[in-house]
Amino acid sequence: MSSLATSSFVEQQIVLHQFTAKHSVQARVMLGWSREDLARQAGVALEAVQRFESHAEVEDEIRLSLAFRLEAEGLVFFPGFAPGWGMSVRGTLPAASAQVAYDIAD
Length: 106
Known about the structure:
Elements: H1 2-6, H2 9-18, H3 21-31, H4 35-42, H5 46-53, H6 60-72, E1 75-76, E2 84-85, H7 95-105
Antiparallel strand pairs: 1-2
Helix pairs in contact: 3-7, 4-5, 4-6
């Protein structure tokens, strides 16, 4: 979890207030990842991902690990909006992925 160590306290607080359980589900769909994939990629237990996405309480470190791992894939998160692709993403968003992201935002 080196990204946690190098991120500032302010950055961590912003992420904690912007990244939601719905974002996690939407981001996984956009990436074609299962809960197991996200857990493995973020270095957290599968049960932690399941709890978070079920709107149960999880430790801040888990939320940060999930958010930072998804952000590493080029996704950005804002309250009230579906995840979007950030400027650092290489390549283009496939049309099917764009439609899925739009559909699950409704």
